Amino acid sequence: MVIGAEGHHNVGIQLAREMNHNFLGCAENALGIREWLESKGHQYIVTPEKEGPDCGTFIPYLHVLISTPFYPTYVTTERIKKAKNLQLLLTGGIGSDHVDLKVATATGLTVVEITGSNTVSVAD
């Protein structure tokens, strides 16, 4: 895994592969932010693997992890301990029950819910 250049970050997200391709939250569309992030020099890592042996291979390299409420990345104590570079965990929607908030807080990890970001998809 290539670590971003100084001043740039690795941003990761796990999105469902078997989803309507018109939905921004499918792995192929990657929330529609790939081009913007990469234009800023950041590396955007998208994977549909949220379970199994390969799902956490990129965690130690991430600075930011984005999660969605309908396909959450479970941020457990074990994953937080492996995430030596992780500074920010974003949840695109309401709810952080997939995050070990006690451990995240104790390690200085910032957890943010972007409430309202999924209102259009919920309404659909």
From TrEMBL:
SUPFAM superfamilies (UniProt xref): Formate/glycerate dehydrogenase catalytic domain-like (SSF52283)
One GO CC term, this protein: chloroplast
Signal peptide stretch: none
Every D-isomer specific 2-hydroxyacid dehydrogenase catalytic domain range: 40-124
InterPro entries: D-isomer_2_OHA_DH_cat_dom (IPR006139)
Annotated GO MF terms: formate dehydrogenase (NAD+) activity; NAD binding; oxidoreductase activity, acting on the CH-OH group of donors, NAD or NADP as acceptor
Stretches of the chain forming a coiled coil according to its record: none
Gene3D superfamilies tied to this protein: NAD(P)-binding Rossmann-like Domain
Family annotation (Pfam families): 2-Hacid_dh
Highest rank taxon of the organism: Eukaryota
Name the record gives this protein: D-isomer specific 2-hydroxyacid dehydrogenase catalytic domain-containing protein
Organism per entry: Solanum commersonii
